[in-house]
What does this fold into?
Amino acid sequence: MTKRKQRERLKLSKREEALCRLAVSVIADYLNGDLNEKDHQHFEAHLAGCDDCTAFFNTYKQSIRAAKSLKYEKLPPALQTRALKFARQKIKP
It folds into this structure.
């Protein structure tokens, strides 16, 4: 492979990497229905062609589903306290 082709390939991979970072950054907005139609379509088109982002997206959805299935009351008291403390620290204005 010529150096020029290697550079072109590297540019493409950097572009794809940027698209993947952008896709990951809007997953929550996509799932909440907060993307405009154009961004919604771009996100879905990217997922259709990117196996890595599709795998990440599916894992993200599964994690949300698993977290929603947990009941606070089912957690041991020590874990309840830690979870509440953690949430309060993250929510601080």
Remarks:
- The chain has one domain: 3-91.
- The CA atoms of residues 25 and 85 lie 26 Å apart.
- Helices lie at 3-25, 27-32, 37-49, 51-69, 77-91.
- Residues 3-91 form one domain.
